[in-house]
Design a protein that fits this description.
Four Helix Bundle (Hemerythrin (Met), subunit A), DinB/YfiT-like, 2 strands, DUF1993 domain-containing protein, 60% helix, mainly alpha
């Protein structure tokens, strides 16, 4: 069985964003049930030097857009990173999903060896599109999805592995 670059990227990004949407729904329900200020959850961090929940969602969105763009050559939309409510973060996820819908298999497949250049820690780094996906794009995206999940669990939101897996 052969898996294409598109199959290994866009569907996984879509699934992860849908998972984040579900996690945010459950977080909002949790806040309502426990009379918590939504900002308490949105500003929660796993550790003081890490991004808060809202920024984890923004970074996951940015990484999904950038990954799709770098693999396909389709320009990604820019978002302002000014979301401060559950509804605004859900809207950002939806806008990201709409962008991913525009990226076709034809634009991605066959681009495995295309050079992708990006800045990492202030230095330019070039790798193939396939290497970018497997070494940076997907791991970075999943880091932010996982961290958002971890923040919400730490805040007492009732989530399990199946919520993370989207099952």
């Amino acid at each position: 069985m052969t898996i294409t670059l598109y199959q290994a990227s866009i569907p996984l990004l879509v699934r992860g964003l849908n998972t984040l949407s579900t996690l945010l729904d459950k977080a909002e329900q949790h806040a309502g049930q426990h009379q918590l200020d939504a900002q308490q959850l949105l500003s929660a961090r796993l550790y003081e030097d890490m991004f808060p929940l809202s920024a984890q969602i923004q970074r996951a969105s940015d990484t999904a857009k950038a990954t799709a763009s770098r693999l396909s050559g389709v320009a990604a939309p820019a978002f302002a990173d000014d979301e401060s409510t559950f509804d605004e973060l859900q809207a950002r996820i939806n806008k990201t999903l709409l962008f991913l819908e525009t990226v076709t298999p034809e634009a991605v497949d066959g681009q495995e060896e295309r050079p992708v250049t990006m800045k990492l820690r202030g230095e330019e780094r070039t790798m193939t599109a396939q290497e970018y996906l497997t070494v940076f794009g997907l791991p970075n995206f999943l880091f932010h999805v996982t961290t958002a999940y971890g923040i919400l669990r730490h805040q007492g939101v009732k989530l399990g592995k199946m919520d993370f897996l989207g099952l």
